[in-house]
């Protein structure tokens, strides 16, 4: 019975019926399926492989002691007190994850218009860096540079009459980068999208003797709906006034991403990033092909939430979706991925090998 548009069609003529249902006489020399015939054969021709070296694990730090407070919109992700961050750093070491990324949940009483807490050498991020480095000096630590976890208005920069000030913000970001470098941070990652910040931070670091501190620029960072759960985690979702479209990129553009990346490289970025991840794999591929720089993708909170939430509901196989999404970044040209799945993926990789 031949099927057309889902409706069965009766073929009355017996010889036609025979012709429609028997295998066509294909004379195939080339059969791509041969290379997929078994697990060992598939492994032999596999083009991209995810390893633990590809993973950067973002962690949320909060005040208190012995605290692991779940983030409701990110199933499986907690805000951790400094002592618990150190425990996760230990887990990362054991799993061979090379690098952690730190983000603070700042107490609302410490947030102000200027984001002053960002430049406090005793803030949660700096405390975490020192605590981790004391026990595990051999793990890499990346610190985000932007003001949004610290400002009462939730923006990444200084706000005046409803406008984000560029150059004044950059001056504060340089100070923020310096306190983080002083605490022992290895990679400064400006995520604010102000113009000229990479060059200013590079100069500030070099002048203060931090020549070896790397910069991973959030070079092509888009104004995205996928940051929602992250803003819950750092507590800026409710306070954010307006949107970030005057500094983060328009999701309709990709040539512009190349110009942004080019500028950041010219200003001294050692590594570049495209963010978010999955909706921007085309941008990732263009960036990698154009500049051949160490290039990273950020699988952001909303991407994590979609997979983890659907898995929790039994709608998809969470482990397989996680691994498929991560190798997709490699295929698109990423040298590594910032992902909240890092420890789970590392455990899965370990099981497989
Ligand atoms: C702060 C920053 C954001 C993220 C990383 N750094 C949020 C934002 O720009 O609003 C998002 C990460 C995520 O969603 O996982 N500038």
Q: Topology of this protein?
A:
Layout: E1 2-4, E2 7-9, H1 14-21, H2 39-44, E3 55-61, E4 68-70, E5 78-80, H3 82-94, E6 99-104, H4 124-135, E7 140-145, E8 158-160, E9 163-165, H5 166-183, E10 187-190, H6 197-207, E11 214-221, H7 228-234, H8 255-266, E12 271-275, H9 281-291, E13 295-299, H10 301-312, H11 318-331, E14 336-339, H12 342-352
Parallel strand pairs: 3-5, 3-6, 3-14, 6-7, 7-10, 10-11, 11-12, 12-13, 13-14
Antiparallel strand pairs: 1-2, 4-5, 8-9
The structure holds ligand PBG.
The site of ligand PBG has 12 residues, from helix 7.
Characterization of this structure:
This protein is an alpha/beta fold and 353 residues long. The protein has a single domain, classed as Aldolase class I (TIM Barrel), CATH 3.20.20. It is 38% helix and 18% strand. The strands form three sheets. It has an eight-stranded parallel β-barrel, surrounded by nine helices. Ligand PBG is lined by residues 144, 146, 148, 156, 191-192, 227, 230-231, 244, 300-301.
């Amino acid at each position: 019975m031949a099927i057309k548009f889902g409706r069965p069609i009766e073929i009355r003529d017996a010889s036609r019926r025979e012709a429609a249902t028997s295998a066509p006489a294909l004379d195939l020399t080339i059969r791509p399926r041969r290379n997929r015939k078994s697990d060992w054969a598939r492994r032999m021709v596999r083009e991209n492989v995810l390893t633990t070296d590809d993973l950067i694990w973002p962690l949320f730090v909060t005040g208190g002691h012995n605290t692991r407070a779940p983030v409701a919109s990110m199933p499986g992700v907690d805000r951790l007190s400094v002592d618990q961050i150190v425990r996760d750093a230990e887990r990362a070491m054991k799993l061979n994850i090379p690098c952690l990324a730190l983000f603070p949940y700042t107490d609302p009483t410490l947030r102000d218009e200027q984001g002053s807490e960002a430049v406090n050498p005793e803030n949660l991020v700096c405390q975490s860096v020192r605590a981790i480095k004391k026990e595990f000096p051999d793990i890499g630590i990346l610190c985000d540079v932007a003001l949004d976890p610290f400002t009462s208005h939730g923006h990444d920069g200084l706000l005046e009459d409803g406008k984000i000030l560029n150059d004044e913000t950059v001056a504060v970001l340089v100070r923020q980068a310096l306190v983080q470098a002083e605490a022992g941070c290895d990679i400064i990652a400006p995520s604010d999208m102000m113009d000229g910040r990479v060059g200013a931070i590079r100069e500030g670091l070099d002048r203060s003797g931090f020549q070896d501190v790397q910069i991973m620029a959030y070079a092509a960072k888009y104004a995205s709906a996928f940051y929602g759960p992250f803003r819950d985690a750092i507590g800026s979702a409710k306070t954010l006034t307006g949107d970030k479209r005057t500094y983060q990129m328009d999701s309709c553009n990709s040539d512009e991403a190349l110009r942004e990346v080019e500028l950041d490289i010219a200003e001294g970025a050692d590594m570049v990033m495209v963010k978010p991840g999955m909706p921007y794999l085309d941008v990732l591929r263009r960036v990698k092909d154009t500049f051949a720089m160490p290039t990273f993708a950020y699988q952001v909170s909303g991407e994590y939430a979609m997979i983890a939430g659907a898995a929790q509901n039994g709608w998809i196989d969470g482990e397989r979706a996680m691994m498929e999404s991560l190798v997709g970044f490699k295929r698109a040209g990423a040298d590594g991925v910032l992902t909240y799945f890092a420890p789970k993926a590392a455990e899965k990789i370990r099981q497989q090998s």
